[in-house]
Each structure stands twice: as C-alpha cells, then as structure tokens.
Amino acid sequence: MSVYENYLEVEKKVQEACKRAGRNREEVTLIAVSKTKPVSMIEELLPHGVVDFGENKVQELTAKYEVLPKDLNWHLIGHLQRNKVKYIIDKACLIHSVDSIRLAETISQEAVKKNVTASILVEVNVAEEESKFGVTSEETEKLVEEISKLPNIEVKGLMTIAPFVENSEENRLVFRNLRNLSVDIAAKKFNNVTMNVLSMGMTGDYEVAIEEGATMVRVGTGIFGERDYSK
C-alpha cells in the first residue's frame, strides 16, 4: 500500500472513532509522524492537503523544513534539549514535549530573541513509566503556572505518551486521566494558558485516545510503515 492509502485507512478510523464519541471530525488533528522517513514519502501526502507532520529530532525537522513547502505545520514531538531550542523556535508550530521549567525558560528566551510566540504543550508522564520523559500528574499544574508567567510562550494544552500495550483498551484510563487533568488546569484560568489541545494516542491506540478526548493524534507507523532504526 502507498503512503497515501495508509493515510486514508487511518483517516477512516479517525472518523469512525469521532463518530463513536459523538465528536466532530474537525476536533481532531491527525499528525503524520515522519521521523526517520525520507522527504519523498512526505511529498506523497502533500497533493492531498496533508499539512501536519511530526518529528522527534530537531536536526531532522529543520532539514525537512528547508526543502519542503513553507505552509506545513511542523510538530516537535520528541524530547527537546535546551541547546537545540534556537534551531526550531521559529519553525515548529507546536512543541509537544516541554517537561521542565528550565526548558520552558530557554524557549521563552529564544522566542523573545526571534520576536515570535512559542506554542507548547506540557508533557505529562501519566503512567509514571521510568523510561519516559514528562512530569507527573501531580507536578503538572505547578509547572503550567510557572510557565504562564514567562514572556512569548503559550501553553496550549497537555501531551502524553501512553505505555506500549497489546490491547489499546489498557490505555483508556491514561487518556481519561490526562483529559481530566486538563479540565482541572483550564478551570484555574492562568494567563497565557488554554487547555484546548490534548496530544495523545499513537498508531496502536489513537482510536481509544480520540474516544477519550484527544485533539491531536500522532500516527507514524500506521501511515509510513515500520521504521528501520539501524540506518
């Protein structure tokens, strides 16, 4: 199957999940996660109006940004090191993976320098897995409040990477907990904070995530096929 045929399959499942949840399809952004994949595969999707792409690494995002049309939305979904922030501050439409005040401060400083406003999500390690980045659910509100005081940075919502499970139902509670957390934080009405974005759900569990309120799902393997990390 071609990349676009894969995309259509995923799109169909997104629509069905929205229908089951009584949601509008427009409420969910499908991010095609193109990490480790060549530009040619991204180009297969462009004639079909696909504009949202996700990358894990700063270097890969900037390289693709340079050669592809400038009207695409690049999402940085991988762990971000502070010394790399300056390279993507004016290229990523959304940084999904902010998990410390120090990183947020660097983003704020670089955004001020470039005279842009950075949109970010706070990454929450809902399942508290040792191998994952992100703050705990308990720490999230305090971090959001601290970030809200910084210039040129806006917290658009929360992101989580759920555990890798065989049965996606096992992650339903993880997604539900993130949604509840975002509702609680939204009620605090911090400056420069909206909780409109819930970035949760990947190839294995995005349908359940949509049923639980995801507004962005990050699908890589389901669209581009398996990855070869040996390269």
Q: Overview of this structure, please?
A:
It holds the Pfam family Ala_racemase_N. Keywords: Pyridoxal phosphate. Belongs to the pyridoxal phosphate-binding protein YggS/PROSC family. This protein has 231 residues and is an alpha/beta fold. It has helices spanning 3-21, 39-43, 58-67, 85-88, 101-114, 137-148, 172-186, 206-211, 221-224, and strands spanning 29-33, 52-55, 73-76, 92-98, 118-123, 153-159, 193-199, 216-219. The chain starts with a helix and ends in a 7-residue tail after the last helix.
User: How much is the average pLDDT?
Assistant: 96
Tell me the strand percentage band.
15-25%
What is the straight-line distance between the termini?
23 Å
Level of helix content?
25-40%
- Stretches where pLDDT is under 50 for at least 5 consecutive residues are none
Domain Alanine racemase N-terminal: 24-227
Keywords: Pyridoxal phosphate
InterPro entries: Ala_racemase_N, PLP-binding_barrel, PyrdxlP_homeostasis
Modified residues (N6-(pyridoxal phosphate)lysine): 35
Key descriptive features of the protein:
9 helices, TIM Barrel, 231 residues
List the helices and strands and how they pair.
Blueprint: H1 3-21, E1 29-33, H2 39-43, E2 52-55, H3 58-67, E3 73-76, H4 85-88, E4 92-98, H5 101-114, E5 118-123, H6 137-148, E6 153-159, H7 172-186, E7 193-199, H8 206-211, E8 216-219, H9 221-224
Parallel strand pairs: 1-2, 1-8, 2-3, 3-4, 4-5, 5-6, 6-7
